[in-house]
């Protein structure tokens, strides 16, 4: 039997880690396209549903309301092809999205992409802060509970997470705001300026994520500790801490990271809600403002950004899972 | 854990009865202002829970909100379940291109985080009960669809169904005696969770002023309105907060899967 290097056999590309990665990337690419399509179509419908003539509206945005004339509007109509049938305009609209030409805000005339680049940083900051809080709350509490399933700590934590999960994110936000900002007056209630402004929003979102995550950590740890390989590590004389670090952590981490993927939707929703409550100038805040002001290009841009962020996040989680768990590289 | 499920269902039943009887209990119109009794204490002047910052009866507004909330949750979940189960059974049974097309539609809904789709639709027609209803039903049907599709595939391929077909029993029989009993329990759980999602979403959108708008007595709107008078009347804002938490908790208990996690 001749042994050939892997890359000559060609099988690496049909199965193995690269193929799995490729399949995942393709799936997420399709998802990203679907996101763009759905958001594009809804935005288009909204543009059509707005009262008044679109050509007049755009002309007014360009030349100002006092310079608006019928001929200017007609020129806009011909230039942008607003007199063409609806299906052609839908195709055009979606085409613009695909090349990431997001247009200008209908309210202040700034390019949407310009505004987005500012907001994205803030949203990412909030999301990272939330993940940080979620992990430092969920991992220790979940591990302690998981080491003694059914114990007092586990049961108290279980009851608490049931309550926390029933609370909508914004309710938690209100409660934290009333307590820390209004009652104690130690943290700013809303806005953006220095570091402390980030604390309440990211803590709110962090607790929302931690409520579920802590249970996932607990189950993963309980399952790992009960497994034969872990019991063997203990029997050969490793201390609990060493056994957990060497044999437990990686096994327990896989379901936890996988669950973070499920929570990506919760995180994106949470960003919208929490930013709006605490007036944190990120993408979610801009989205609710755009809805309120009926600013369609801005609305489309922010929704697209959140949707694509969601896809990217899910993909990242999949890749991390693949790296952590060799069994998935089939 | 069965006790929790029963507790949840009892709580919901109680809530429904109180909501239906609402106007009889309070005797006030939720929109009627009494500017001489602003932020009145609970129990004063015949106001069961006191009044809000405009002198409107809080109990009446709370029950008005309950009516909106329960109606939306009930109708959105019912239409989502009907639609999702129907398409799921068809897709799972027929397979082939029908399955692929329905699958693609459900994937494009799932591609967006749930609330985002509702937000976008809410933007088309703001402050409208109907857009919220359509948006939430459109998000929720996917879960029903996916569960029934997978179960249908499994059940239809089972020996029991094969035997039923050999006996000459029709499709209707298979649906009634094999499919529906198979996923009935799961559907109830999905429905309870879906309803919790609707209740949360409605209040969330109301609070960040992209859902229903004042003067509608909706819980989220009420919280936003009562927030400034928190220091003078903490009981006022506590009322919608407690109602919302109670409703969502009951629904999650009724879903009866808490014991697994």
Report what the structure shows:
The complex is a heterodimer of chains A (330) and B (261). Chain A has 330 residues and is mainly alpha-helical. Chain A is 78% helix and 0% strand. Chain A has helices spanning 6-9, 11-14, 17-49, 54-63, 70-79, 86-98, 112-147, 152-166, 169-183, 196-226, 228-235, 240-278, 283-293, 296-324. In chain A, helix 4 crosses helix 5 (70-79). The longest helix of chain A has 39 residues, at 240-278. Chain A is elongated. Chain A starts with 5 loop residues before the first helix and ends in a 6-residue tail after the last helix. With 261 residues, chain B is mainly alpha-helical. Chain B has helices spanning 2-26, 58-94, 96-110, 114-124, 129-156, 159-166, 171-207, 219-226, 234-255. Chain B is elongated and about 75 Å long. The chains are: A mainly alpha (330), B mainly alpha (261).
Compose a concise summary of this entry.
Chain A is mostly helical and 330 residues long.
| Biggest β-sheet strands, sense, barrel of chain B | none
Radius of gyration of chain A, rounded? 25 Å
Main pleated sheet of chain A: none
- Helical region count of chain A? 14
Distance between the termini of chain A: 24 Å
Tally the helices of chain B.
9
Q: Termini distance of chain B?
A: 12 Å
Subunit organisation of the chains: heterodimer
Overall geometry of chain A: elongated
Gyration radius of chain B, to the nearest Å? 22 Å
